[in-house]
Amino acid sequence: MVLNAARWLNLTDQADFDARFNKFLTTLSSLKLFEDTLPNKVYNAANAQMVDYGNNPLERGIGWSALDVGPILAAFDVIRTCHPQYNDWLKGIVAKWQVARSLF
């Protein structure tokens, strides 16, 4: 959302936005999900491995949070509206997630 705001405030140009956002989506697309359902609560920012709150690697992860899933889905909707060229990529990412699990 910060990157989107920077773009709309002309603090960055479209080429820079695309380069940064493509890197973000590439990483997000490759994240290992907690129990193959949803993103883990915590990942190492340097290597995208699941970790605990102390940044210690964990094979299984620590879980997911509906409080995290909701805002990222809302952010994806804003991005799809402002940058429709990312619609299919974002849909592909979310299609791998079991979003319904976060509703109960």
3D structure, described in words:
This protein is mainly alpha-helical. The chain has one domain (2-103). Helix content is 48%, strand content 4%. Strands 1-2 form a two-stranded antiparallel ribbon. Strand 1 (33-34) and strand 2 (38-39) form a beta hairpin. The two termini are 26 Å apart.
Topology:
Blueprint: H1 2-8, H2 14-30, E1 33-34, E2 38-39, H3 66-82, H4 87-95
Antiparallel strand pairs: 1-2
State the gist of this model.
With 104 residues, the protein is mostly helical.
Task: Throw out a few tags for this protein.
104 residues; two-stranded antiparallel ribbon; 4 helices; mainly alpha
Distance between the termini: 26 Å
Rg measurement, Å: 14 Å
Please give the share of residues in helix. 40-55%
Principal-axes geometry comes out as globular
Q: What is the average of the pLDDT values?
A: 96
Given the structure, what is the number of helices? 4
Largest sheet: 2 strands, antiparallel
Protein structure class = mainly alpha
Strand order of the largest sheet: 1-2
Low-confidence stretches: none
What is the total domain count? 1
Strand content: under 5%
Oligomer: single chain
Number of strands: 2
List the helices and strands in order: HHEEHH
